[in-house]
Each structure stands twice: as C-alpha cells, then as structure tokens.
C-alpha cells in the first residue's frame, strides 16, 4: 500500500478501497460494507463538498494519538486507541465483525460508554440501513436508511429520543459529474424545522467544485479542489464562506503534495492568519505516522499547537 496510490480517485471519483484517507482511518479495520457497486449516481448529500473539507480539516490534529489494529482469522478486527488531549488521557477498544451483508461495530471506552453500530446492506435492494446507540445514554439511538439510484440518492434518519425525536431528510439528484442536493431537519415535538440546506457539486477530470446555502440561508460557502499535474501528485484547495448576519467573510486556501509513494504533506492558511501543516509518512505497509502543527502568523510569540498520531496495523 502506498500513500499516493489512487490520488485521482480520492479527489475526483470518490474514495477507492486503498485511498489515503483509509490509511488514516485504520480503526475501521480490514473490511467494510460498501454500496459503491449499487449505484453510479450522484452520491449522498454528505459527499457534496467533502473532498475540499477533508483536505482542509482532516489530520490537522492538536493532540497525541496512538492506535494498533489487528484482524483475526475469524474475521474480527480489533483496534486499540489511546489519545492524550492536554492533561486528559482517554482510550478505547473497538471491535468490528462482518457477516454476509451485515457489519457490526462495538466500542468500549474508559468512561464506561459502549457504542454500537449495526449496518445492513440490501434489506431492500439498493439500500443501506444503519442503527446505532450508545450506553448508558438510552436517548442516543439513531436509525438511518439510505437509498441509492442511478440518478438520485435519499436518506432518512430518525433520532430515537423519547422527549424530542428529530427527523433528518436528504435528497440528491444528478450524475457523478453534477449533483444537486438538499437536506432538512424536523423536530417532531415542537413542529419546527431545525435546518434546511442546499448544495451543488460539479466534478471534472482535474477539478471538483461545490457551493452551499446553509444555516437557513444565512451562510454561503463555496469550495474547489484542482489537480496541478497529470500524475495527481499535487492539488490546490480553496474555500470561501460568507455569513450575512455578521457581514463576515472567511477564506481558506491550501494544498497537498506527494513527495513519493510514502510521504505526503498538506498546508493551509486562512484570512485570519492561521497557518497549518501536516506531514504523513508510511513507516511500513499500512502503518502511518502523522505530524501536524498550527500557529497564528499574527501572534508569533504564542506557542504553536502540535499534534502527533501513529497508526499501526501489523
């Protein structure tokens, strides 16, 4: 496995089985349920703008994290993770098991919380059903159904809160090249809409662009990703956000460059003067070291923030 493998697929056609972000998400173990083969349609609403968002936010960490993932002969994947955030240290153990079209995730942390997610594909053709809950919080249950079609996708998610159940709906229509999407949230107890957002994405061989109208029309956000060379070793990313109620603009630019098959660097800078950088190196197959830093260029006397993560998968 190599860090730069399938960079084109990661940013343009969607995440391949061995994409960069999966190397960094080793906690999801040695298998997963995928509905990519169900549909060649526009993807979910949550996919709109995701490529630019990942480039600008993913792996920009400020804590220390260590994880080890293993996969047994019986098909059970186990991931142990320890994280230090300032003076606070937490850890968890996660197990994942796949049986036919069912994927079971269970996680136990040091706060005695047990999180469980059950994912089933094709209960009805071209669907994925996801049920999740967290103990001892009995109001944390959630049920989501996703439907995929060649020209549309739909999702319905119901929060199983006894006091105030909420329903989230999304719909996306189009093709892999251009997609139009919308989402809405509805609180059944008060009969109020908690959110309504719309988005558009356009995908070309070297460029991905998206624009959103969110926060009940108060925020407009546009983003793009563009490859700078034919080998897809480098990419530029930008995002601009306009908040009308505060008459405020936020602009962020960044980039990615793959030195070789093992080493990738990222950087970003916003109009407030915050500069961030990430270095990722594959120490050996499937095991990645991530070093991140962030500091305020307008206050160089302040101590920069540093993050370190080591993900091992023997």
TrEMBL record:
It comes from the Eukaryota. GO terms for molecular function: porin activity; voltage-gated monoatomic anion channel activity. Its main location: membrane. One of its GO terms (cellular component) is pore complex. It is found in: Membrane. The keyword Ion transport applies. InterPro entries: Porin_dom_sf (IPR023614), Porin_Euk (IPR001925), Porin_Euk/Tom40 (IPR027246). It holds the Pfam family Porin_3. Keywords: Ion transport, Membrane, Porin, Transmembrane, Transmembrane beta strand, Transport. PROSITE patterns: EUKARYOTIC_PORIN. Belongs to the eukaryotic mitochondrial porin (TC 1.B.8.1) family. Forms a channel through the cell membrane that allows diffusion of small hydrophilic molecules. The channel adopts an open conformation at low or zero membrane potential and a closed conformation at potentials above 30-40 mV. The open state has a weak anion selectivity whereas the closed state is cation-selective. This is Voltage-dependent anion-selective channel protein. It comes from Actinidia rufa.
